[in-house]
């Protein structure tokens, strides 16, 4: 579905790389911009402050000798006006304080930006003091310059005259310059973010290209192409990963090739042994048949031994036949010889030929029922194995049922279903996944039965040749049920496949 795929994509490595790269770029841009802004702002304000401070202090020192102490209100007003005149273009406002007298360069000016701490510092110490004060959205530089006398003797400190001059000057121009810096930083953020995203995309592409190649190579190996290798570029960690993948793929290729050779040798060995055993077994079977006929005339111990030899020879012959059949499946030499048959009649013949007609219950349609294109011999083997398994390990009644199953979309009948069920103890849940495995027996008791452990495996392979399925399950009321499902339509045999050799 598209939504889960989109959700998975949002949590993918590409998105995470882009987000991480962008966050780092944003953090770097904002940090650099903040530091640059702070330094530039401090530089602008410091330069402005130093310039005004020097200019005002020099101007006050120049005016002071012209006024004789003690001052009265009139001379103090004149001093404040003269002190402000030098900075008229900059909007200077001056406050002169002498004892209890107070004079401003602007009539009625309350000089509200002068803080008590600054006034106290300028009055108590004969040093120039200053302070930046923010009033609303307006920034003001306030400074205090105490007027002092030169020392009487060398080395003595200057003496306070009692006159302190305060200056208030707007920093509107400096604030405008700072605002321009802020705007410049803001305008630079978006291009920086865009550049960061582009760089992140390029970096993610460079990082993910080897990852995509590794994913494709892993998928190719999962499909069985063990000769898949990656091209190694560079000498970084991704290159090391590609090299490790190639080494692992080479080792796996060698291991799989060796396993295939061993498997082929094992199959060939089983086929050769089975083939070689058939001739002496045929002779042994002929001899045991003769001995069985003469067993009645032998003493009891000898007759028992003869019958035991005959039974075990029959088991061995069936095991060899099963091994030969399995070898054909493994070699891909098993071939269907399809014929159009009445499936119900084929089931009846299978039961009748083995004497099971009175033992096994049937639920079969009348003649003329479902017809399938199938190999009669192989279907006979499948049904015989399933019924024999039910009779041997289940409990009566054993039932064979045949019915036609419709298409899954509700269309006309398309498949024939054969069910073989019993009322025995059923199949243990831990055994169900293994019932079709070769030589698998669920308990030690079954190892002593005459079964080879290949019957159900052979049945499964025969059903697969017909394009069908074979499943095992337990009935709700007790007992096991095996279900064979084969198509009613024609079955395509593999073109050019070798004709099955009849070794019977």
From TrEMBL:
<keyword id="KW-0418">Kinase</keyword>
<feature type="domain" description="Histidine kinase">
    <location>
        <begin position="272"/>
        <end position="490"/>
    </location>
</feature>
<dbReference type="Pfam" id="PF00672">
    <property type="entry name" value="HAMP"/>
</dbReference>
<keyword id="KW-0472">Membrane</keyword>
<dbReference type="InterPro" id="IPR003661">
    <property type="entry name" value="HisK_dim/P_dom"/>
</dbReference>
<keyword id="KW-0597">Phosphoprotein</keyword>
<keyword id="KW-0902">Two-component regulatory system</keyword>
<dbReference type="Pfam" id="PF00512">
    <property type="entry name" value="HisKA"/>
</dbReference>
<dbReference type="InterPro" id="IPR004358">
    <property type="entry name" value="Sig_transdc_His_kin-like_C"/>
</dbReference>
<dbReference type="GO" id="GO:0005886">
    <property type="term" value="C:plasma membrane"/>
</dbReference>
<dbReference type="InterPro" id="IPR003594">
    <property type="entry name" value="HATPase_dom"/>
</dbReference>
<dbReference type="InterPro" id="IPR005467">
    <property type="entry name" value="His_kinase_dom"/>
</dbReference>
<dbReference type="GO" id="GO:0000155">
    <property type="term" value="F:phosphorelay sensor kinase activity"/>
</dbReference>
<dbReference type="InterPro" id="IPR036890">
    <property type="entry name" value="HATPase_C_sf"/>
</dbReference>
<dbReference type="InterPro" id="IPR003660">
    <property type="entry name" value="HAMP_dom"/>
</dbReference>
<keyword id="KW-1133">Transmembrane helix</keyword>
<keyword id="KW-0812">Transmembrane</keyword>
<protein>
    <recommendedName>
        <fullName>histidine kinase</fullName>
        <ecNumber>2.7.13.3</ecNumber>
    </recommendedName>
</protein>
<keyword id="KW-0808">Transferase</keyword>
<dbReference type="Pfam" id="PF02518">
    <property type="entry name" value="HATPase_c"/>
</dbReference>
<feature type="domain" description="HAMP">
    <location>
        <begin position="205"/>
        <end position="257"/>
    </location>
</feature>
<dbReference type="InterPro" id="IPR036097">
    <property type="entry name" value="HisK_dim/P_sf"/>
</dbReference>
